[in-house]
Each structure stands twice: as structure tokens, then as C-alpha cells.
Amino acid sequence: MRFSGKTIIVTGAGGGIGQACARRLHDEGANLVLIDRDAGALAATQAAVAAPERLLVRAQDVSVEAEAAAAFEAAIQRFGRVDGVVSVAGAMIYKGLEALTGQDWERIMAVNFYAAAYFTRQAFNHMQDGGGLVYVSSIHARQTSALVGPYAAAKAALTSLARTAAIEGRARGIRANCVLPGAVDTPMLRDSPNIKSGLEVLDPQDVGQPEDIAALVAFALSDEARFVTGAELIADGGRLAKL
Ligand code: NAD
């Protein structure tokens, strides 16, 4: 029960990894604010989590800045405090550099990166001292493939944001880390055109489960990770270690 009495905001809580994070943090005692733009997916996560009195559910688009402030206000009104934010919401686009428009870049940067920056601003203004930030990045922050340029750039930008937040949060005991999943068995992976076309071929041993990521997210948020901040925590089954 590492999060008993604590309030954690999870964005992208309707997705595979977001739902696993919600279940894990809930099982360890947290009050949760679950955010996703897909109300149906949010309802599925809500149903997977047992204690409705410890839940606040908000259908919102994380790329709208004012909504981050509204989420914090609602969280504090309901639970009296915020102790952590897990930025999980993300989206991909599959296009070559010659085809990507400004709108494409803006949309992917907004969902994967700006949204995390908006929540970070709110956290620095309203989160408890000693709180934690976890950004779900990707191994695409380190190595990438064709046709996912904006996604890879946004995920790399998140690792930089974690370092800045770690530095600026240090005096208040605020820790900030990135988790870099490899391939994880969720709709995002299953629907990938690069997987379907064979451009990206996966060894089954390189595919993890959402719970594998949730375990690392929970560790990064917990007091056990009190000396871990500004870090890139990779969970990829060893995929990046191979020559
Ligand atoms: P998913 O598609 O199951 O979940 C993503 C969730 O984000 C969805 O519920 C979606 O509705 C939500 N979302 C998207 N845009 C939003 C917006 N503008 N506002 C609010 N919610 C929005 O995918 P997942 O695999 O669970 O991915 C979760 C995170 O993990 C993403 O950031 C993804 O980039 C990252 N990741 C996934 C994998 C993988 O293989 N699945 C690998 C590395 C990193």
C-alpha cells in the first residue's frame, strides 16, 4: 500500500498501459484521477478498478492547456491534494518526412509532449512537496524506425522535460522520471501499420504486458525511488541491449 492517502493523476487512463497503471496504483491504495478523451475507454478502466470512492474520472483532451488546470482544481476539490502525475496519453502517426504537415507535427507534439508540459506546470504550482512525476516515453526516444518521426521526437523531448523537472523540483523533493517502454501488447501496438506491413518485425520475447510498465511506473512514483530522479527507466525485455 505504497500510495495510501495519496492522490495520483493518470492521463491516457483508458488505454492499455494507462489502465494497468490505474489498477496498480489503485491496488496500492491511491486516490486516482483518471483522464482520457475516450469516455468509453475510461468507463472500462473505471469498471476495472474496485473502489469508486477513491476515483475521479474526467473525459478531457490533454492537449488543451486549460483542461490541465481544471483537472488539478477538480482533484484538489475532491481529494484535498495531488501527490503525483503519470503522463501516459499518447498517439502516433505513420507518415514519411516528405508528407508530414505542420498540423501533423503539432498534433503529435501536443498529445505526447505539450500535454505533459501543461500537467507539469500545474504540478509545480499545486502538487505536494515530495510529489512525483512520471512521463511514459518510449524506446523511440533512443532508437527509432521510419515513418514515426514526430512521435520519436516527442518521446525524446519528454526525456529532456524529465531532466528539467528533476532539476527544478529538487529543492521541494519533487522527483521526475521517464519510463521508456519497448513493445507492449496494447491496441497501439496491435494497430501499428509498421507492424502490419512487416517494416517492423517483433520477436515475441520483445513484447511485454501493460502490467510490466505499470510496475515500473509505481516504483518510480514510490518513496522506494527517493534517489531516482531525472532518469530514463527502460522496460523493453532487453531489446535495446542487442547488437
Ligand atoms: P493506447 O492507444 O492503448 O492508449 C493511449 C490512450 O491515450 C488512449 O486511451 C487514448 O484515448 C488516449 N489519448 C490519446 N490522445 C489523447 C488526448 N488528446 N487526450 C486524452 N487522451 C488521449 O496505447 P498504449 O500502448 O497504452 O500507450 C500508452 C503510452 O505508452 C503512450 O504514450 C505510448 O506512446 C506509450 N508507449 C506504448 C508502447 C506500446 O508498444 N504499446 C511502447 C512505448 C511507449
Automatic annotation (TrEMBL):
<dbReference type="InterPro" id="IPR057326">
    <property type="entry name" value="KR_dom"/>
</dbReference>
<feature type="domain" description="Ketoreductase">
    <location>
        <begin position="6"/>
        <end position="187"/>
    </location>
</feature>
<keyword id="KW-0560">Oxidoreductase</keyword>
<dbReference type="InterPro" id="IPR020904">
    <property type="entry name" value="Sc_DH/Rdtase_CS"/>
</dbReference>
<dbReference type="InterPro" id="IPR002347">
    <property type="entry name" value="SDR_fam"/>
</dbReference>
<dbReference type="InterPro" id="IPR036291">
    <property type="entry name" value="NAD(P)-bd_dom_sf"/>
</dbReference>
<dbReference type="Pfam" id="PF13561">
    <property type="entry name" value="adh_short_C2"/>
</dbReference>
<comment type="similarity">
    <text>Belongs to the short-chain dehydrogenases/reductases (SDR) family.</text>
</comment>
<protein>
    <recommendedName>
        <fullName>D-xylose 1-dehydrogenase</fullName>
        <ecNumber>1.1.1.175</ecNumber>
    </recommendedName>
</protein>
<dbReference type="GO" id="GO:0047838">
    <property type="term" value="F:D-xylose 1-dehydrogenase (NAD+) activity"/>
</dbReference>
